[in-house]
Specification:
It contains twelve helices and eight strands. By secondary structure, the chain is an alpha/beta fold.
Length: about 300
């Protein structure tokens, strides 16, 4: 990230929450479950699937984790009641992983069990590197009992290909993405093309073993390369999908949809929208620049 972009992100963080919220609403369904359901219905009407995410992470006590788990249960019920084309994504630290691994296990197990009862699926998101091993272990423990659960791997981590080789043996359902957390160079690639190369290397290995993969990227290069790999390996459509964030690269999203491939959009909602918005801005400074330019434009009206 350039110094100019860093300054823009810092400037946006100094703005009132209401201002950030106004310009971030394209990327967040809203604060309530009803908001999330409304946005998913709009996507479903276009033939686009969704994964619903109750915003929040790094809870500090079991009571918070249980409360967030209960909202996730309500989300699963809402998906079933409204017959939505959607599943659930969860953050491990939101379920208490940073407090105690067994607390997180109990919480996630309850969610996955309920999801299976209503014929649905839970995706365990991957967070920053202090939780990588614990998240993979959590996934394995749940997967021993229920198969309607998947995990996320991040291609900027140098370990990812080795993780794929191990997890493939279980028949894992993946989401592969680049990753957004700031990690030291000893464990993470910093070069853009190196991250892309590792993404494609991991994806090919996942496909080789017949695993289902959510190809999560807004990078046209990676989308084009994935198209090529799918064709070369003759991967059937029921073995993969593309995934994107709400409000990001809708042109590519619609192209993938029109090309006849399954596309799933990550739909975040909840009261913790501000922290999510700032993280998205840090990941995509161009978004922050857009906010600043829009505010300056308002000033000229």
């Amino acid at each position: 990230m350039s110094i100019f972009n860093q300054l823009i992100v810092q400037l946006v963080q100094l703005m009132p929450k209401t201002v950030v919220g106004f310009f971030s609403k394209k990327y967040i369904a809203g604060e309530s479950l009803e908001d999330g359901v409304r946005v998913v219905k709009e996507l479903n009407a276009k033939g686009i699937h969704a994964t619903m995410d109750v915003l929040g992470e790094s809870v500090t006590n079991k009571e918070e984790a249980v409360a967030d788990k209960n909202i996730c249960l309500q989300t699963l019920e809402a998906i079933a009641e409204n017959k939505l084309l959607a599943n659930l994504s969860i953050k491990p630290t939101q379920m208490g992983l940073a407090i105690d691994e067994n607390i997180a296990y109990e919480q996630v197990l309850e969610l996955v069990k309920r999801a299976r009862e209503i014929n649905n699926f839970v995706r365990i998101d991957m967070e920053d590197s202090p939780y990588t091993d614990a998240t993979i272990n959590l996934f394995k423990r749940i997967y021993e009992q229920y198969k309607n659960v998947g995990i996320v791997l991040q291609s900027y981590l140098k370990r990812t290909y080795d993780d794929v080789v191990i997890l493939n043996k279980l028949g894992t359902t993946y989401r592969i993405c680049k990753g957004i957390y700031v990690e030291p160079s000893i464990i993470a690639y910093k070069d853009k093309q190196a991250i892309r190369d590792n993404f494609m290397k991991a994806l090919k290995e996942m496909f080789k073993n017949g695993n289902y993969v959510g190809i999560a990227t807004h990078d046209k290069y990676l989308i084009d390369e994935s198209y090529k790999l799918i064709k070369e390996m003759n991967i059937p459509k029921e073995k993969f999908e593309f995934q994107m964030l709400l409000g990001v690269r809708e042109d590519l999203r619609d192209k993938i949809n029109n090309d006849g491939y399954k596309i799933r959009v990550y739909v975040p909602f909840g009261k913790d929208w501000y922290a999510y918005s700032i993280r998205r801005l840090k990941e995509n400074p161009a978004m922050a620049g857009h906010i600043v330019k829009s505010i300056l434009s308002f000033g000229r009206l």
